[in-house]
Specification:
The structure is a homodimer of 352-residue chains.
Chain A (H helix, E strand, L loop, with lengths): L12 H17 L5 H7 L6 H14 L2 E2 L8 E2 L1 H10 L3 H9 L10 H16 L2 E5 L8 E10 L2 E8 L3 E8 L6 H15 L9 H10 L5 H15 L6 E4 L8 H4 L3 H10 L1 H18 L3 E5 L11 E10 L3 E10 L4 H21 L1
Helix pairs in contact in A: 2-3, 5-13, 6-13
The structure holds a DNA duplex (30 and 30 nucleotides).
Chain lengths: 352, 352
DNA sequence: ATTAGCACTCGACCGAGCTGAGTGCTAACG
DNA sequence: CGTTAGCACTCAGCTCGGTCGAGTGCTAAT
């Protein structure tokens, strides 16, 4: 959704310098920045009056604006966008080298992700957001039914990437060991190696026909298994450091913070962000996305920016990691820390 | 931790009536209540002056206090305690009948609990808190190792209550099917029916000795299984409606809300609450506990009250459900809704 | 024992006035 | 012609004093 960055040509060198000065300053202080400040802050030797003229131009072009008449300027979304797209290479690299996040290798992916979120939040002072990977393109690796009790059968399903699913299936009547054995064979020969999304309703009915034995139980067990396989809607999203947003006054006032935290509690909104990030990444091949203010659909987020990245675990499972902060967040730092984290995840899961 | 309720005798009838009036009024309005208000609000025909005298007494006894000189009174923790312990039977019953929460039966316990939290929060306008049950006293019902790949074995463990645990075990060298079969037999004969806490280190070493085959792999596999069994520290706590606390001005100011929400993010503090509730319930046989302000250890919670209850799923698994709100929360309603919810959980899991 | 009355306290609210940061415009300057 | 100095103007934020009203404590009368 981020529009193509405006051609640099639109702004002459001096305007760019002034714009950067405004933005940098605002990022630091969080307060509107005036012409006088800039005439000192920058190396270009110009009086405040001149700066004022230039700023007036910049305002007309939509890069900055005044919150009220005769106060300093602050960047617009367009201003930030320009900054993010064109003007932040050196500083970022610098930070990235310094950052040293250390993820402890944990047994469960879930734990690692939670930890990653925590680290990210702690290191940036923004809110971190991590989604579990989508698995529906993954291939079935192992499937087994076991009789646990007279009337219950446990289905264990392992897909590539060692994601394990369980389903306890209650049966009306007792089901004998022999049938289970046959079912195991049947299911394995037909489903093994298929990706989860390939296992659809058509295939299942076909399977039932071939089953040979046509009792109710068998059919219902197969249904249950199919259910479990398809139930990959368990996309979880963890957040950490939600209260960090209270550190930024412009988000604290008038219930904005409440709205934002509510959004964090509400999966659907988060999913949108995660998903656009995933698809964007898929198309664009950029490793990180930045969404600024209105570039996000969610109304509660209009005063925020989000930096997202897509992580990829060897077996093609992809998930999203995000940092949510105020629009005046330190993009360099956020992106630097993010990159550093991605590198680590890479090391853990892909180098092996 | 809640102290024994003061004997009613300490307060004569009239004082009780006045105290109740103060509390009820404050619960509704959230503002200090004065003598004049009460002289109207109650049926006892007394002038404000008399009320003032009585209130002065009540203040001396520690049931109410003035936020600043010459403003109305608000209840102290002691006041609330008295109210909760002695004075709220009729209204509660009434509400409880009206409440109709409907939990959809879901496959996974986890989902049901999350849903319960959501319902609770939505219905009360407070924050809900649900812990997954502890399982360490549960008995092992089913254990199975399966070879998934050359170098990995999957352990599936089912305990009473149909809690399923998985552990993927990577082995250095390939392990043959035969060994797995033997291991399955070994583990099952020795561990089946034991409660998780009975499976300790001693037992495991004993088991290894009896194993007969003494290769490294076997030993490491057994260790991994034991690990998985003991790893019941995955006590999860879900919260819902965290931002509801913003609805109560006395919690919103001066970063209190932030502290509270932070506490919600932080498991350890929550665990404390959950655990005291569990043990309290164990001892006292009361179905619900109320903790008011300083009765909780967590400093961030000193301005809150919590209503907790312990749910019990057939197989002896117990967890805690809580409602967190301001001290001036509507205890009747909270307890009523809670009770109603517990009844439903009971129906789902215990009536079968 | 209860009540009416009175003086007093104190937070909340409101408007006035001041200040300082910042602007836009104009005229002068190199 | 771009740049600058100067000036009038705007406006948010702060402080100050005054008023208001709710509420109390105390005393004297019932």
């Amino acid at each position: 959704m981020p529009k193509e960055a405006p051609r640099i040509a639109e702004l002459d060198d001096r305007k760019v310098k002034i714009l950067v000065a405004v933005i940098r300053n605002y990022l630091e202080t969080g307060e509107p920045v005036g012409s006088r400040t800039i005439s000192k802050y920058t190396d270009l030797k110009l009086s405040s009056a001149t700066i004022r003229n230039e700023m007036s131009d910049l305002e007309e072009m939509g890069y900055i604006f005044q919150p009220h008449t005769s106060s300093g300027r602050i960047p617009t979304d367009k201003g930030y966008r320009f900054y993010v797209d064109n003007l932040m290479s050196e500083k970022e690299r610098e930070i990235q080298e310094k950052e040293e996040l250390i993820i402890e290798k944990a047994d469960k992916l879930e734990e690692v992700l939670k930890q990653a979120a925590k680290l990210l939040a702690a290191n940036t002072n923004y809110t971190a957001l991590v989604s579990t990977p989508e698995t529906h393109r993954n291939k079935l690796k192992f499937l087994q039914l076991s009789k646990v009790e007279k009337d219950s059968v446990l289905a264990v399903i392992v897909v590539e990437g060692n994601i394990i699913k369980n389903k306890m299936i209650h049966t009306e009547e007792e089901i004998d060991e022999d049938t289970i054995l046959k079912l195991n064979l049947l299911l394995n020969t037909h489903l093994n190696g298929l990706s989860l999304e390939e296992i659809n309703l058509g295939l299942i009915t076909l399977l039932k026909e071939r089953a040979g034995i046509h009792t109710e139980i068998v059919s219902s067990v197969i249904d249950a298994v199919a259910d479990a396989i398809r139930a990959d809607e368990d996309l979880e999203i963890y957040t950490s450091g939600a209260t960090n947003i209270f550190k930024y006054p412009e988000l604290t006032d008038s219930g904005k913070a409440t709205d934002i935290i509510n959004t964090f509690e509400n999966k659907e909104e988060l999913e949108k962000i995660v998903n656009t990030s995933l698809s964007e990444n898929n198309a664009g091949r950029k490793e990180m996305q930045v969404y600024i203010g209105k570039e996000m659909s969610s109304p509660a987020m209009q005063d925020c920016s989000v930096v997202t990245a897509t992580y990829e675990l060897g077996d093609g499972m992809r998930g999203t990691i995000g940092i949510v902060g105020p629009k005046r967040m330190d993009y360099e730092k956020a992106m630097g820390t993010m990159k550093s984290l991605m590198n680590q995840l890479d090391e853990i899961y892909n180098k092996k």
